[in-house]
Each structure stands twice: as structure tokens, then as C-alpha cells.
Design brief:
The protein is an all-alpha fold. The chain has 59 helices and two strands. The protein has a two-stranded antiparallel sheet with strand order 1-2. The longest helix is centred in the first third of the chain and has 37 residues. The termini are far apart.
């Protein structure tokens, strides 16, 4: 570039601009028109030369800067190899890496053999240093090295004489065997509890990173995976370690290379690494310590000379584009910080000019910093833009327009490289507008030349265009559209705008040029819009114009289409193929711009097109082999695009996009993913989002089919992608279309049954995703086809889990993702329930919790099946649970299943409504009696099987069982009683006194708590009045039939319900006292003082309650009347009272006999006498022992015994056995005891003598008492 003053350059450019524009309108000139045009063209040519020289000088300075410190000469490698390939001066490797060789030569007897072996080994090492693959093959073939990847890795790691550079190159190869060697090499390192910076330092000691970005990417990817395996709690995923490793390498280069002037600060380092831990920030203290460690202690590679280290360190950023890569991670743009432009530099240059300005007017200053060029461009760009634009617009001279387009190219190059965004976009917009592709009818040859210039700019300066790519890609899109019209091919709109029903019937007709010429007019609105044209910025060209297309416009349009034949498909596609050469930042900008153009095409109301969409798929294929960091950022852009278009209302467009995404996914799944990475999951995420949000059944079905095809054909390659796969199938499980549900479940069935090991091959957490997916299928509305099978597969998963088929990678899963939170009434599990020490057991949580939740499902078959499977799993595999986990399972999974038991009881207690409503509520649990019976049996069976572990939960289990017993439904209460019998029968001898106390107290509470609720129901009979009913008939009505005419229907229903409840209540009470009797007789050791007191209270309570029921004469008469009308059997009230007192007496006698001392302390004898007196008194009340008295003034009083009715006689007969038992108890009392209590019961005995009896047994017992007991007392 000529050395000139800035002000002189500015004056020159402005002068050339005036000349290029010509004299102002109306001014006089001495030049002829031909001279004026020539003069203008020469001025433009000068301006082009100026901007060209600026670009040339800029490129030269940049090349000088690169060659001085970024070149990585290949001669370094060849010299290293040469130094070890000749003679015996090279270091002899140790034999540690090949133990067989040591053994062989330990017995060697000749020195010649050792020397021959040494020479052959050196030959192999020398060959390796020149051609590593050949060297390895030679060493293996000569048996100096084993053939496994692990042995080769050990050789590379331990042998001396190998070039560290060549080792790095070999480890970075993508061929199968070198790749396995690299994996074995990295896996040989143990980074456990090693700091990240020290791990990288330790890792890089044995080789030098290669100079190819793809090779480094493979090595660092494996390093990140290995570090995370050794330190599972260090980062969220291996992606974090991968990005941080690159960042550390960049920091090391920045901090320890003298050519880097502006060093990275700690704040910069922390800022650059924000959000890399799965969207979260790593602790600033951690990053700060890592920064200090690298800055203070440079990472050096062994055996490298300082010069080589400097060259390589400096070149790494250039070779890999690390600056750009980390900009991608942090989202920064390079143009925000122009190259070398800062205030200090400007001030320094100005001070130099001022200091030397007065010394010599003819002095020039040569500048080597390209920042000075920025100031010149800022002054010159405006005049140049005006000159090039005006000339290109006004002139049709081929040479002049060629110079203008050349000027545009040079101007874009300079402004783009300098990071001058505004100026770059101004030049790009101008040249794009001059293509006239938006108004094809007005195109000329110069406009076609402008199109060619656009393509050249894309190929030459693509790395610096950034947002300007949108202009280029828009032009390419319009070219393709016009070329299709020229070929007469049908437009994309003919396919994409048709409705679903029309698509099959409608066949697009091509629009041929001959057809256009023949008709002279066009009817297709989309084509008319293209012919009419529009503004450059309009996405719907010609849409707002009206009127038909004129023949002249049509003729010009067809003629200009022929001009575009100069641009073939090769030139058009070359831009997209060339995207592989773009740097890391440029390719992201390119893809972003292409997505914007694609959306613009697809959203066109008149002419939707898929050109850019197809190019997106091609671009993704071309660039899929880029390093992970770059490809990840590319995919972030593409992912948003696929989601946006996949949710399009245009079904055809959405289907096309999803199919394109499927093609990319199939291609991507061919790549291997290492453990702890998450990129497959990110890649498949668009499928997940569209599946969850799309309202189109066709799209959802297509996604399910695509995923099914991909997974089943690439199952061995799926790693982190399983999470997205299961999320998609989870969404499908809730779909309203049966075919979608069945298709998804069919694939899930095949995955679980045949490919289960692949699910957890690299990430055990995917097991929980699989379980959640199966649980989603259990709630499918198509339960007959899916839900039972899904529950069966949950059992299968439990078997696999118990067998230990999950990969134990140590990754913590107690992060809340395994907790199933639910609304009230559902299972709730908190992460705190399971400690980190119990991680293997935590895999059971979602499985067990899901089944637990299903037990409250509204479908009977699902409830029963889930109950059986849940308890079967717990019983079959509970032995693998720790004690702590068992307690958590019982509290959080098993016991919450039975919450409905207590809820049901509350409902009954608080109910005051009609009988029909009460009945539905009392039985309105989600469980029927059969399910409740299964559940109670399973609970007891599980508790008994693992009693030693879950023993502390006995009180909770008893509470559940007594909850069943409290049920107003006889079947459910009987289930509870049966469960209690099973529990005590199996555990009786193993229960402690305290545990027996819990059982007896539970029974007592269950017995007493049901009484108030029943009495409340019984009280409703007091509100029922029967018409034509006289209480004078109370003594005789039982002997006659009733008519239902005097009873209202509602009252009849209420009374019928009360009778049913009474029968159930009595049956349960009788069952309870029988269970208690069986318990104390079968387990006498359970009868401590406290337990005896509890049982006495229970029997007393039941007996009192039974006596109270028998005393409600008015209610009994109403019940008898209803039973007669409805032809029902009456409730066994008398039997209830007899049995309750009989059990009471039996227990008191048992205590007196078995525990005489304790009986004396507790006053059992007195209680026994009192109970017997109550029995006798009740019998006397039934006999009617009160006599009718007839009085006369002149005669003595006569006593008449009233005859008993048939009902009373039946009752008396029913009570005879009990009163006989009571009398015998009194008669069998010891002499002193009888004598002590005789005064209390003697009047009752007298009344018995005077009463009518239905059996002579009462009289015989009385005779015995009077003769043997009372008589002996009198004779004293």
C-alpha cells in the first residue's frame, strides 16, 4: 500500500468521487460526452485500485503476523523422526511394556540375540516416527508388541524414543484401530480425586496435541469422558469437562505466549465459561483457582524444546479456531471488538504524528498495525459506495460495471475482515439490490454479473460476513426460484398449499415457457407476482401489485430468465458445499441466516418454497464432522428452526421438515457417543418438543414412526438419546389416537424385551426415564391393549434391576428427578428420603412409586394388577434393599396406598344424608372389597416376610388393619379381621409384650370407634313415624302380620338401610370379640397386666353396647315391623348381647383360673359377679317378673302372672343358655367368695324362682345353688 498521509488519502478519494459522478446537473464542461464517460470510468477504476490496495496491504500484514508466530512446520516432525532412526544413539526403550520379552531375554545366553532384538525394535520405533500406522503394524508383525489396543496404548505411554508429536497424531486418527488405541490410552489414566487442571497437565505429558482440529476434538472428548468417570460428581455431564478442557488450553496459550499482548484476565476466564455446566455456571471460586493454577504453572509437554512449545501453543488457537469456538460458547461476536482498534492505539499514533509533524514536511510514516486502516476506511467508504452504486446504476458499459463490482468485492473484503459491520452490510446490501433478482423483468447483463459477484464474495470472504450471509442466501434462493420457472417445473406452492384432501387428487401442471409465450398472459397468482416483481426487501414480491401482466413484461421476463443460464447449478451449490471450509463462527452465522431465509420461504402466503430447507439438510450433512463444540452451536440454531417449522399449520411443510430431521438424525446416530455426554439427547429434542406441542395427529404419528425406525435400526449407537426417545413415547402414551399409542408401545415392548442392556449401557439414569415411560402407558385410555402389558414390563424392569444389570457409574440420582410428587392422596417421595449412600436402591423409587400410585386407579383391573405386581416385586426383591431403604419404602410407598381406609371412616361418621347417599359414600372408595382383600393380604404377607427389617412399622400396619375393621361395610371389615388373624398367627411367638399391646389397643379402638357412628345411623329411626300405629299394641303386635300400607316409601328405604347397617355392625362386633378370644387363648404369654385391662375394657364396651341396643324397645318394634313388611330377617340383637356377655364371662373365668394372683390384684372376682348379675337381671326383664296386682277393700291382695307372648318366649329361650352359664359361675364360686357376694345377688335368685322359664335347666341350676351354696350358709 502506498505510504501516504490520511488526509491526503481522504482528499484523493473525495476528488475521485466527484469525477466519477460527473459534473453537477446544469454546470458547463469542456469535455465531450465520450471524454466525460472515459474520465468517470477511470475515476471509478482508481477508486477500485485504492480499495484493492487497502485490502492487499491488510492481507499482507495479516500473513506476516501469522507466519511470524503461528506456523507449525512439518519439518519439526520429520527432524524428530530422523534423530531417532539411525544408529544406536537413540534411547533404548524399557521392556516394562512387554513382559513376555523380559521373560524371554532373562534366559538369553548370547549378547547377539539381545542386540538383534534391540535393532529390530529401534527399526520399528523409527518407522513409527515416520509413519505411525506402519510402525505399529511392523512391531506387531515382528512380535515386539501385542496386537490388542491396550498393549499398543501401553507401548505408546511407556516406550522411550517415540516422537510425542507423532504419538499425538496417531492417537487422533479416526480409523478403527487407532481410535481403539486412543480410548485404551486415555482409559489407562486414573484421574480420581485429581484437580481438573492437574489432570490435563498429567494427561498431556506423554504426547503433543496434533495440529488438526478433528484429531484434538476426538482426544479431548475421550479425556472429558474419562475424567467424569473417575470423578462422577465433578460436573453435570462430560460436555462440561469437554468445554472446560478447551478453555484451559486456550488460557494456557494466552498466558504463556509472548506474542499475546492483551492477556486474558481472571474475570474474562470466568465470563468465558458461564453457562457451560448444562446451562448453569460453575462456581467462581473453582474457576478462579483453575485460572491461577494455569497462569502460575504452564502446561508443558515432555521432551518438547521451548521453540517447539512456543510454536505449538501459539498455533493451537489458530488451528482450532479456539477464539471463535469459545465465542460460540459464550455467544460473543468478533465484530464487537475490531482487530486492534482501541483508544490507546489511536492516541499513540496521533501523538507520533504530532511529534514529528514539524520536523519535515516531506516525512512519511510507515505503519504496520492494520488498525490504522480502519480510520481510512471510515473516511473513504461513503464516497466509494456512492461512486460504485451510481456508476453501476447509470452505466451499461460492461467494463465500467465490472470495475464497480470488483470495487464492491474489495470493499466487502476489507470491511468484513476489519469487523466494520455497518460498512460491510452497506456494501453487501447495495450489490445484492443490483442483482435485480427481485424484479427479474428488468434484469440486464450487469445484474447477472452482480449475481456472480455475490457468489464470489460468499466464497472469498465467507468467514467474515456474519449477518450479511442473509443477503447472499436470499439471492441464491431467488435464483433457484427463477431457474425453476425457466425450466417449466411446478412450483413448491403447488404441493405445499394444497389441503390434505386435495393433495392426492391434484397433480401440478408445469409452467413451460412455450405455454407462457402462447397464451401471452398468466393466471397463476404466484407466477404473476414474480413477473411483476417488487422491492428488494419484500418477501412477497409483486403481491401488492394489481392488474394483469403485460405482454412486454412477460417477454422481458422470459428473455431475462435465459440470462440466468450463465449461472449453473454448480455455481449455485458451490456456496453450500464450501460451507465446510468456513470457520467455527462463520458456519454458525451461515446456518442462522439460512434458517431465516428458509422460514421466509415457507411463510410466503403466495409462493411457499422448500429450497433453503433442503439446503439446511445438506449443510448439516456437510458439517456434521465438525468438532463437538461447533456442531453443538450449529444444532442449537437448527433445533429452534425445526421446532418452529415442525409446528407449522401447513401440514405438508411440517411433514417435510420432520422427515428432513429424521434423515439428519439417522446420519448423526452413526456417530459414536461416549459416556456422560448429552448431545444425542439435544439432537433429538426437536422431536420431543414437536411431539408434545403439535396438534396434528399426522405429525405425531410420523414422529413416533421416525423414532421407532431410528432406535431399532441404530439401537447400539443410542446413548444419551434414550432420554428423548422415552419422552417422545411418554407423550405418545397420552395420545388420543389409538394407533399412535399402540405403535409407540409396540416399540417400547421391543426395546425393553430385546434391548434392555443398551438402555443403561452408558447412563443408568435412563432406567428411570424408561420406567416413567412405561408408567405413562399404564394410564392409557386404551387400557385393554396397553396398560396391563405395561405393568407386566414394570415387573420385568424390576427383575433386571434386582439382577444388577444397571451400569454402576456412581452418578447421583437423588436430585429430585427420581422423586414422584403428587397431589393430596397420592404418593409423595422426597429426595431426602434416600441418602446418597443408598444410591443403588434409589433406582427403585420411580418404579415402586409409580405402581403405588396406580393402586388408586379408577380401573379395577389396573388396581388389582398394580397391587399384585408391586407387592410381588417387594417380596421377591426386597432382600436387595437396605434397612434404611425398607423403612423409606414402607413410609412413602406401601402405607400411603391405604390412606383411603381412614378417609372412608370419616365419610361415614360425618354423614347425615339419605340412606342411598350414605350407601354410595360409605362404599365409594376407589377399591372394591375384592381389591381391599388382596391389598390387606399382600400387606400382611410382605410385613411377615421382612418382619426383622420392618418391625418398627408394626404400629402403622396395625393402624391400617384396624382401619379396615372400622369400615361400615361388612366385607371390608371382615378383610381387616382376617388380616389381623394372619398377622398374629404368623408372628405371635415373635411379638414382644409392647407389640401385643399395640395390637390389643388397636382392636379396642377399632371396636369402640365404630359404635358412635353406628348409633348415629340408628338414631335416624327416631325420625320415622308409622301412621295408624298405637303403642298399646306393643305387647301383641309381634304375634300378628303387618301391612306396608301405613309406611311411606322413603321411610321404608331408610329403615331398610338401618337394618342392613345393624346386621353388618353386629357381625363385625361378634367377629372382633371372637378374634380377641382366639388371640388370648392361642397366645397366653401376650396377657400382661396392661393387655388384660385392655381386653376387659373391650369386652365390657361391647357388652354394654349390646345391652343398650336391646334396651331400645321402640326402635326394635319399628325394625320388626319393617322386616315383616319387607320379608327380611331381623337383626340378631339378642344373639349379639348373649355372645358379648358370654365372651366377657369366659375371659373373666380364664383370668381367674390362669392368673389367680393378678386376678386378686385387679378385683376380677367382683367384676365377674357384677357381670353375672347383669345377665340375670336382663333375663328377669325378659320374663316380665313384675306382677299385676288387683286390689280390693275387703279382700287381701291377689298376685297374677301375665302370660308371655310368642316373641318373648323365643327371646327367653335364646337367653336361657347365657343365664344358666351365669348361674353356674355363681354356684362355682369359692365358699368365702359366694358368701361375701350373696347379699348382692340373692334377691335376683328369688325373682328367678318366681319367674316363668322356657327350660327346666334354669330351675335345676337354681335348685343346686339353694341347696349347696345358700343352704350351707344357712346351716352355719
Amino acid at each position: 500500500m502506498p505510504q501516504t498521509f490520511l488526509k491526503d488519502n481522504c482528499r484523493t478519494v473525495n476528488g475521485l468521487l466527484k469525477t466519477a459522478l460527473g459534473p453537477p446537473a446544469g454546470s458547463a464542461t469542456t469535455l465531450s460526452p465520450a471524454q466525460d464517460i472515459t474520465f468517470r470510468h477511470e475515476s471509478v477504476k482508481c477508486l477500485v485500485s485504492i480499495i484493492k490496495s487497502m485490502g492487499g496491504w491488510m492481507d499482507e500484514q495479516l500473513r506476516i503476523g501469522e507466519s511470524s508466530h503461528t506456523r507449525f512446520p512439518e519439518s519439526d516432525i520429520s527432524m524428530e523422526g530422523h534423530s531417532t532412526s539411525n544408529g544406536e544413539d537413540a534411547a533404548v526403550p524399557d521392556y516394562e511394556f512387554h513382559p513376555e520379552v523380559n521373560l524371554e531375554f532373562s534366559d538369553a545366553t548370547t549378547l547377539e540375540q539381545r542386540r538383534a532384538y534391540k535393532m529390530e525394535l529401534q527399526k520399528g520405533i523409527a518407522l513409527f516416527n515416520r509413519k505411525p500406522s506402519k510402525g505399529i503394524e511392523f512391531l506387531i508383525s515382528t512380535k515386539k508388541l501385542g496386537g490388542s489396543p491396550e498393549e499398543v496404548a501401553a507401548f505408546l505411554k511407556k516406550a522411550s524414543g517415540l516422537s510425542e508429536t507423532v504419538i499425538g497424531d496417531y492417537l487422533g486418527e479416526r480409523d478403527e484401530f487407532p481410535l481403539k488405541v486412543m480410548h485404551a490410552y486415555v482409559d489407562s489414566f486414573n484421574f480420581k480425586e485429581m484437580d481438573f487442571g492437574e489432570a490435563i497437565r498429567f494427561f498431556l505429558q506423554g504426547f503433543r496435541l496434533p495440529g488438526e482440529a478433528q484429531k484434538i476434538d476426538r482426544i479431548m472428548e475421550k479425556f472429558a469422558e474419562r475424567y467424569c468417570k473417575c470423578n462422577p460428581s465433578s460436573f453435570t455431564s462430560a460436555d462440561t469437562a469437554y468445554v472446560l478442557a478447551y478453555s484451559v488450553i486456550m488460557l494456557n496459550t494466552d498466558a504463556h505466549n509472548n506474542m499475546v499482548k492483551d492477556k486474558m484476565s481472571k474475570a474474562d476466564f470466568i465470563r468465558n465459561n458461564r453457562g457451560i455446566d448444562d446451562g448453569k455456571d460453575l462456581p467462581e471460586e473453582y474457576l478462579g483457582a483453575l485460572y491461577d493454577q494455569i497462569v502460575k504453572n504452564e502446561i508443558k509437554m515432555s521432551s518438547d524444546s521451548p521453540a517447539q512449545q512456543s510454536k505449538q501453543a501459539t498455533s493451537l488457537n489458530k488451528l482450532l479456531g479456539l477464539d471463535g469456538i469459545l465465542n460460540l460458547v459464550t455467544g460473543k461476536q468478533t465484530e464487537e471488538k475490531p482487530l486492534g482498534a482501541n483508544g490507546l492505539l489511536i492516541k499513540h499514533i496521533q501523538e507520533q504524528f504530532k511529534a514529528k509533524a514539524g520536523k519535515s514536511e516531506s516525512m512519511y510514516h510507515s505503519v504496520t498495525d492494520i488498525a490504522i486502516l480502519r480510520f481510512m476506511v471510515e473516511v473513504c467508504w461513503g464516497p466509494m459506495l456512492a461512486a460504485f452504486s451510481m456508476t453501476l446504476d447509470q452505466s451499461d458499459d460492461r467494463l465500467a460495471t465490472a470495475h464497480c463490482l470488483l470495487g464492491f468485492r474489495f470493499a466487502v473484503h476489507v470491511t468484513a475482515v476489519m469487523g466494520m459491520q455497518t460498512q460491510r452490510d452497506a456494501f453487501m446490501t447495495s450489490v445484492a439490490k443490483f442483482t435485480y433478482l427481485h424484479c427479474a423483468a428488468d434484469m440486464k447483463q450487469k445484474n447477472v454479473d452482480a449475481v456472480k459477484a455475490i457468489i464470489l464474495i460468499a466464497l472469498e470472504d465467507g468467514n467474515h460476513l456474519q449477518e450479511a450471509w442473509e443477503h447472499i442466501l436470499t439471492c441464491l434462493s431467488r435464483i433457484e426460484h427463477l431457474q425453476l420457472l425457466g425450466e417449466g417445473a411446478p412450483t413448491d406452492a403447488s404441493f405445499l398449499t394444497a389441503s390434505n384432501g386435495e393433495t392426492e387428487e391434484r397433480t401440478p401442471k408445469p409452467i413451460g415457457l412455450s405455454s407462457l409465450k402462447r397464451k401471452g398472459t398468466i393466471q397463476d397468482p404466484a407466477v404473476m407476482a414474480v413477473v411483476r416483481g417488487g422491492s428488494y426487501d419484500s418477501t412477497t414480491v409483486g403481491l401488492n401489485s394489481s392488474g394483469p401482466v403485460t405482454p412486454e413484461q412477460l417477454s422481458n421476463f422470459i428473455s431475462n430468465l435465459n440470462l440466468l443460464d450463465q449461472i449453473g447449478n454448480f455455481e449455485l451449490n458451490h456456496v453450500f458445499v464450501h460451507s465446510q471450509q468456513l470457520n467455527s463462527e462463520a458456519i454458525v452465522a451461515f446456518v442462522r441466516a439460512l434458517c431465516k431465509v428458509a422460514i421466509s420461504e415457507l411463510q410466503s402466503p403466495t409462493d411457499p418454497r422448500v429450497f433453503s430447507l433442503t439446503k439446511i439438510v445438506e449443510i448439516a450433512h456437510y458439517n456434521m464432522n465438525r468438532i463437538r463444540l461447533v456442531w453443538s452451536r450449529i444444532w442449537n440454531v437448527l433445533s429452534d428452526f425445526f421446532v418452529s417449522v415442525g409446528l407449522s399449520e401447513n401440514l405438508s411443510v411440517a411433514i417435510f421438515v420432520m422427515d428432513s430431521l429424521r434423515q439428519l438424525a439417522m446420519k448423526f446416530l452413526e456417530r459414536e457417543e461416549l459416556a456422560n455426554y448429552n448431545f444425542q439427547n439435544e439432537f433429538l429434542r426437536p422431536f420431543v418438543i414437536v411431539m408434545q406441542k403439535s396438534s396434528s395427529a399426522e405429525i405425531r404419528e410420523l414422529i413416533v414412526r421416525c423414532i421407532s425406525q431410528m432406535v431399532l435400526s441404530r439401537v447400539s449407537n443410542v446413548k444419551s438419546g434414550w432420554k428423548s426417545v422415552f419422552l417422545i413415547f411418554t407423550a405418545a402414551a397420552a395420545d388420543e389416537r389409538k394407533n399412535i399409542v399402540l405403535l409407540a408401545f409396540e416399540t417400547m415392548e421391543k426395546i425393553v424385551r430385546e434391548y434392555f442392556p443398551y438402555i443403561t449401557e452408558t447412563e443408568a439414569m435412563t432406567f428411570t426415564d424408561c420406567v416413567r415411560c412405561l408408567l405413562a402407558f399404564t394410564t392409557s385410555r386404551f387400557n385393554n391393549d396397553v396398560s396391563p402389558n405395561a405393568i407386566a414390563f414394570l415387573r420385568f424392569c424390576a427383575v433386571k434391576l434386582a439382577e444388577g444389570e444397571l451400569l454402576s457409574n456412581g452418578k447421583s440420582i437423588s436430585d429430585g428427578s427420581t422423586s414422584d410428587t403428587a397431589e393430596s392422596g397420592e404418593v409423595v417421595l422426597n429426595a431426602e428420603t434416600f441418602t446418597n449412600k443408598d444410591e443403588p436402591s434409589s433406582f427403585w423409587v420411580p418404579l415402586l412409586a409409580g405402581l403405588s400410585k396406580l393402586t388408586s386407579d379408577s380401573r379395577l383391573a389396573i388396581r388389582k394388577s398394580s397391587l399384585e405386581v408391586l407387592f410381588s416385586i417387594l417380596k421377591d426383591h426386597g432382600h436387595v434393599f437396605s434397612n434404611q431403604f425398607w423403612i423409606a419404602v414402607f413410609n412413602s410407598i406401601v402405607l400411603p396406598i391405604f390412606n383411603f381406609v381412614s378417609e372412608k371412616e370419616v365419610t361415614v361418621k360425618d354423614d347425615q344424608s339419605s340412606p342411598s347417599v350414605r350407601s354410595s359414600q360409605s362404599e365409594g372408595s376407589t377399591w372394591d372389597s375384592e381389591t381391599a382383600s388382596v391389598a390387606a393380604h399382600c400387606l400382611v404377607d410382605l410385613f411377615v416376610s421382612f418382619f426383622d427389617v420392618v418391625r418398627p412399622q408394626l404400629s402403622s400396619v396395625v393402624l391400617v388393619i384396624t382401619g379396615f375393621i372400622k369400615s361400615p361395610v361388612q366385607g371390608t371389615a371382615s378383610t381387616g379381621v382376617a388380616a389381623l388373624v394372619r398377622l398374629t398367627g404368623d408372628l405371635g411367638i415373635r411379638l414382644s409384650e409392647h407389640e401385643w399391646s399395640e395390637i390389643y389397643v388397636g382392636l379396642k379402638e377399632a371396636t369402640e370407634s365404630t359404635i358412635p357412628g353406628f348409633l348415629k345411623v340408628l338414631g335416624t329411626m327416631n325420625n320415622i313415624e308409622f301412621t295408624h300405629y298405637s303403642h298399646t299394641d306393643l305387647e301383641m303386635d309381634s304375634d300378628h302380620g303387618f301391612s306396608g300400607d301405613d309406611i311411606e316409601d322413603d321411610n321404608l328405604q331408610t329403615a331398610a338401610y338401618v337394618i342392613s347397617r345393624m346386621k353388618s355392625h353386629i357381625a363385625v362386633q361378634l367377629l372382633l370379640i371372637q378374634v380377641v378370644a382366639d388371640l388370648y387363648t392361642s397366645h397366653p404369654k401376650s396377657l400382661s397386666r396392661g393387655n388384660i385391662a385392655t381386653i376387659l375394657e373391650l369386652f365390657s364396651s361391647v357388652a354394654s353396647h349390646a345391652h343398650q341396643l336391646n334396651s331400645e324397645m321402640k326402635v326394635q318394634k319399628k325394625i320388626l315391623r319393617v322386616c315383616s313388611v319387607l320379608e327380611l330377617s331381623g337383626p340378631p340383637i339378642v344373639h349379639f348381647e348373649n355372645e358379648s356377655y358370654q365372651s366377657y364371662l369366659n375371659f373373666l373365668q380364664y383370668i381367674l383360673l390362669q392368673f389367680p394372683r393378678l386376678s386378686s390384684e385387679m378385683g376380677t372376682e367382683s367384676r365377674l359377679v357384677t357381670v353375672c348379675m347383669e345377665v340375670v337381671q336382663t333375663y328377669l326383664n325378659c320374663t316380665g317378673h313384675q306382677f299385676a296386682q288387683v286390689k280390693s277393700a275387703n279382700r287381701p291382695v291377689l298376685h297374677w302372672i301375665l302370660p308371655l307372648g310368642s316373641a318373648k318366649k323365643e327371646e327367653l329361650a335364646a337367653r336361657t343358655t347365657l343365664v344358666v352359664t351365669a348361674l353356674r359361675v355363681l354356684g362355682n364360686l369359692e365358699r368365702d367368695t359366694f358368701k361375701r357376694h350373696a347379699l348382692r345377688f340373692f334377691p335376683l335368685l328369688v325373682d328367678l324362682v318366681r319367674s316363668e322359664h322356657s327350660s327346666g335347666e334354669v330351675q335345676r341350676v337354681l335348685t343346686y345353688i339353694f341347696q349347696q351354696c345358700i343352704g350351707s350358709i344357712i346351716l352355719e
